[in-house]
Amino acid sequence: MAHIIVIGNEKGGSGKSTTSMHVATALARMGHRVGALDLDVRQRSFGRYLENRAAFSAREGLALPTPRLGILEARSTDDTDPLSAAMAELEGESDFIILDCPGSHTRLSQMAHTLADTLVTPMNDSFIDFDLLARLNPDGKVLGPSIYAEMVWTARQMRGQAGAGPIDWIVLRNRLGTTEMHNKRKVGAALQNLSKRIGFRVAPGFAERVIFRELFPRGLTLLDLKDVGTAQLSMSNIAARQELRDLITALNLPGVKVAF
User: Fold this and answer.
1) What is the mean pLDDT of the chain?
2) Residue 76: its pLDDT value, please?
3) 155: Cβ–Cβ under 8 A, 6 or more apart, which residues?
4) What's the CA gap between 56 and 9, in Å, rounded?
5) Which single residue of 6, 146, 202, 255 could bond 116 by disulfide (Cβ 3.0 to 4.6 Å)?
6) Sign of torsion, CA 239 203 12 167?
7) What class has domain 3-72+81-251?
């Protein structure tokens, strides 16, 4: 059975597609068979990222390790579930399947969360995004879980009833500031406190870097730069590669030994 990694967050702009792409291609580079599905049927940022990669590779004559992008077919007349059908296409030939969810609540996203062996929730490092996980009073005290956390709880219950095993939930602190700021410390403390209450792990994600916006049109990731003639990486790029290495290590995926 493929290990299913769901990248989910009901707020846009948190770096889901960047995270999905870098996790998927890092696993492919390490020799794993990787399937991919973009569940945001409207924007399709992850799907277009992979399509850009295929087009760039063909144009430049490169053989870049690339996940297989599955297709969500329109619902048929016999009411076939499109997610189940797409998963069945990928499952037999994938060690890992990455599901990139939209930045809103949809039925596809809800279904995907019940399939997650590993759930990764990128969030911008601010109390605005913290609200996705929990409700706070004006003094910063946690009042209770928010709607997204409640959805994850429901997904966990459904998996338990089906005997499918637990969800390993990781919250990524994306766009971390490079300096130690008062707000950064407060967000970190609040996350650690909340993690014990609703059951997730906290991991550092990606800092805000221009390189991520520049890579998308060619479908490239940080690990491809040397393959496309970038002989000398900048200090920012080297730091970003280390962030990716730390992220893959933090995911603690079965059978994965970080080697890049």
Assistant:
1) 89
2) 47
3) 110, 113, 114, 116, 167
4) 29
5) 6
6) positive
7) alpha beta
| H/E run at residue 142 | strand 142-145
Q: What is the torsional sign of CA 197, 198, 199, 201?
A: negative
Determine whether 131 is exposed, middle or buried from the number of CB atoms within 10 Å of its CB (0-12, 13-18, 19+): middle
Identify the H or E element spanning 114.
helix 107-115
Local mean pLDDT, 10-residue blocks, the chain (260 residues): 94 89 97 97 94 96 95 62 92 96 91 97 85 79 84 94 94 71 74 88 89 92 86 81 95 93
Cα(135)–Cα(242) distance, integer angstroms: 33
Contact between 10 and 43 under an 8 Å Cβ cutoff? The reply is no
Residue 77: per-residue pLDDT: 45
Contacts of 34 (CB under 8 A, 6+ apart): 24, 25, 27, 28, 67, 68, 94, 95, 96, 97, 98
Measured over the CA atoms of residue 212, residue 216, residue 218 and residue 223, the dihedral's sign is: positive
Report pLDDT digits (tens) over 191-237.
Answer: 888 888 899 999 989 988 888 889 999 999 999 988 887 666 788 88
